[in-house]
Design goal:
With about 150 residues, the protein is α/β, with parallel strands linked by helices. The chain has helices at about 20-35, 65-85, 100-110, 130-140, and strands at about 10-15, 40-50, 90-95, 115-120, 145-149. It has a single domain, classed as HUPs (Rossmann fold, 3-Layer(aba) Sandwich), CATH 3.40.50.620. The structure holds adenosine-5'-diphosphate and magnesium ion.
Amino acid sequence: MSESNEPITIKSILVAVDGSAYAEKAVRYACAMGPPLGAELILLHVVPMVVSATPYHDTVTDQPFVSLQNLGEDILDRAKKIAASCGCEVTDLLSHGDPASQIIDIASERGISMIIMGSRGVSGLKRLFTGSISDKVSKNASCPVMIVR
Ligand SMILES: Nc1ncnc2c1ncn2[C@@H]1O[C@H](COP(=O)(O)OP(=O)(O)O)[C@@H](O)[C@H]1O
Ligand SMILES: [Mg+2]
């Protein structure tokens, strides 16, 4: 942990979006917090790498990958529209892999000041207090993580 007494500046906020209502709420929180702080807002969706019997290189039969990629682009577009409706400028990022690891690694590589994400996502298992991805990110990220409920 940093022992510095330097004032904290929130320069950038990474918002993790998966198309769920929780993540959309996270976008709204980011829009409420980013502009007053002068922070750059970055929306990130990670296209999950799923284990598939279909080879990824086969563009004809590679439905799972293609549709997840398209879905990811739609998710980002929706999130951008929500931000725009809040009067917020954002940049967006699409990455591929394990969602929790990608969120943590991208935040670290870019020196992100804070991550905002939903407490649950599209699978929304009500028995769980928080989703597995928000759980992993909040435990392992090197920056503060705000979980929106
Ligand atoms: N593929 C993803 N890309 C980016 N963010 C994600 C992704 N999946 C989940 N998230 C973020 O994590 C939050 C919690 O989702 P998750 O942990 O997957 O819960 P659940 O198990 O209910 O789906 C979401 O609201 C979203 O902010
Ligand atoms: Mg999920």
